[in-house]
Amino acid sequence: MADTIFKKIIAGEIPAHKVYEDAHVLAILDIGPLSRGHTLVIPKEPAETLDQLSDESAAALGRVLPRLCRAVLAVTGVRDYNVLENNGHAAHQAVRHVHFHIIPKPSEREGLGVGWPAVSLGSDAPELAARIRAAVTAA
Q1: Which of 6, 78, 83, 88 has the fewest CB atoms within 10 Å, counting from its CB?
Q2: Closest CA to 76 of 108, 99, 102
Q3: Catalytic residue among 24, 38, 97, 99
Q4: Does the annotation count 99 as an active-site position?
Q5: How far from 127 is each of 119, 123, 137, CA to CA, in Å?
Q6: Quick one: pLDDT at residue 116?
Q7: Beta bridge partners of 19
Q8: Could you tell me the pLDDT band of residue 1, with boundaries at 50, 70 and 90?
Q9: Residues 60, 43 contacting (CB under 8 angstroms)
Q10: CATH class given for the domain over 5-114
Q11: HSE on the CB side for 68, CA within 13 Å?
């Protein structure tokens, strides 16, 4: 995995506004926030995409994400928020290291804007679901 800004922040080579840290996870304020309190939650394990992350690091993220969301909401006074995680360039991942965004949504104009170009579920849905179930078992 290439050196990333997150790897350098985790190593202490670049300063950041830390809001949480444990053996597996670092959370910092985003330097280009979409809204006040926009927080990044980063596993310390170097993995580019979520599917490459170990179960141990994924579990550590799962344990801390709700607590961090509660803290961001309590401090900002916002009730609505997005948790976002992108995987790969085409999916808008800007830094090639797994990271979650906690983005408070104080109003329609502030925070994350999302387009959702939904399509119909295809006639192959039963087969697709069965294939995904089998892949989960094999993973």
Answers
A1: 88
A2: 102
A3: 99
A4: yes
A5: 18, 9, 16
A6: 84
A7: none
A8: low
A9: yes
A10: alpha beta
A11: 29
